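Service request form, structural biology core

Requester: graduate student, group of Dr. S.
Request type: structure prediction, single chain
Budget code: on file
Notes: please return the result as structure tokens.

Sequence provided:
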Amino acid sequence: MKRLDLVVLFICFLIITGCSNVASTQEKPPTISSITDSKYTETFNELNLGTLFDYNLYLPHADKRWVRLWVEKYQDGKKEDQPVTELSYGMSVNKVDEGHLGFGMLSDSSVLLYGPNVNIQPEQIDLNLNEEYITSWGHAIEEGKEINLELGKTKLLAAYWQTASNKIPTIDFQNEDDIANLIKENEFVLLLKIKIDEEMPD
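Core staff response, request fulfilled:
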């Protein structure tokens, strides 16, 4: 083999090795995806327990990060001062946490939140639901789609609402104006949100 050919092969080898090293050092960010057909949701449906919003959370550096999951309530367009329920956890014993995370509304007026290896007991909360109103809900994440969670940024996961009208709106959950109109035009709205930080919030 000619010397020039050897040099070309060596350069190609360096390029390929360099690319693979770059790829290996590119770290996957925190991600979340909605799961509408999980065993969790199947159990809720089969036992007629209520409504469940179930997700899969992937959290690298879980031993150095903090997760906050909470539900905001809006009544007649006005936001309540405190969340309906909230789950805050972090500094895991694992470097990577992955598993189910979500929010459940039980038929007995209880609510619950859960995350990978952590959950809170169901809380009995009067949400002031009206059985005569039309009820709707939706995921802010397209089914089967995995999205990145940016550190320090709040992400809407789902919405649940009741309306006295017969109008069922078409909502783009990525559009802030649509969310604002949802809150304004419906008597009762719940928003499920998540935020991941590098450290425990104050």
